[in-house]
Amino acid sequence: MKRMCLAILLVFLIAILSSCGRHVPLEDLTISLILGVDLDDENNLIISESSPVFNKDAKKSVETYQLKAKSIRASRKYFDALATGEVTAAKIQILLLGKRVLEHEDWFSILDTVYRNPTFSINTRVIVVDGPVSDVIFYKPADKPQLALHLKEAIDKNNGRSRTVNNTLQVLHRQMYEKGLTPSISEIKKEKNLKFVGVSLLNENGKYVDSLSIQDSSLLLILKDEQKQEVTFTIPMKSLDDEGGIFNKNELSIDVNRVKSKVKTKYDQDKFHFNYKIHMTVTIVEQLFPVGKVKEKELEKMIEKELNSRFKVLIKKIQENKIDPIGLGLYARAYQYEQYKKVEEHWGKALAESNIDVSVDIDIKSMGAIK
């Protein structure tokens, strides 16, 4: 009898709670899927939003608006006045940030309402736009799905193939407030078409300092131990003689099938030391020089030399900018806590003075189906 009473009470409460919400028909809503934040030439804040149109009589499938506003929240009343239906931000998939915005240290406060609004999805993908946000948000590719879906699928695919990072609002919030890590965000550019160009690197205050190419982004993911599927690298074999001709190029492409990394952290002679040992199992997927010109063991050493050189260049860029997109501060805090706490407030500078060594060990698993 008691169980039956509890069941009736539960059904009653569910009925009451479900009736408390205000139900708005789908055709009366403007469901924003993309939110854009940018600055114009006079440093006025420009807010954009893009929404699908569900009205069968409409000639356009997407409505996009852009306007000046003092904040994201203040822009809503203007969007409500322009849009056909009531604007809701509950389904936003993509947040586009203009690079002009990131050139200012205090930009992150613009997103305050995004984090306070309980209906705003923290899984929204964050993307930096190299150029005006309007070039992207008003872009209508004829051979692609709606822009929001296209960007979401593109960033997930490129992250899955270890070409770029996948920053959501939740990840960005952590990176902005974590002292042992600095933010890194996927970067796109509109030329003839939209394309991912790499990763934007920010300092501890969130200010843009530099960018990484697609290839360097893959290296960053390996150092962060966040590579997922196979990573492809094309390597120029500089030590081989160029025999001329228009097709005989001394290049090699490899698929990195498996990566095992070990990081040792210590503090010695008044600075931190990070020692990476990275073992890669690779497959040769393209060889543009004669078979037999280089023995397999020699080839492994040549690949190791090239990748070691690339990691060295990446680390030099990181240290010169006094940033830590890898998250080495997390290792320092975990293994050298007392020393880390002394430099926590200026970790970027401490990392710039640190010794970071990377040693790559290559094991060629396969030379391909046919040699």
Automatic annotation (TrEMBL):
GO terms for cellular component: membrane. InterPro entries: GerAC_N, Spore_GerAC-like, Spore_GerAC-like_C, Spore_GerAC_C_sf. It is a lipid-anchor. Coiled coil: none annotated. Residues 198-368 form the Spore germination GerAC-like C-terminal domain. Gene3D superfamilies: Nutrient germinant receptor protein C, domain 3. The keyword Electron transport does not apply. Residues 24-189 form the Spore germination protein N-terminal domain. It is found in: Membrane. It comes from the Bacteria. GO terms for biological process: spore germination. Pfam families: Spore_GerAC, Spore_GerAC_N. Keywords: Germination, Lipoprotein, Membrane, Palmitate, Signal. Belongs to the GerABKC lipoprotein family. This is Ger(X)C family spore germination protein.
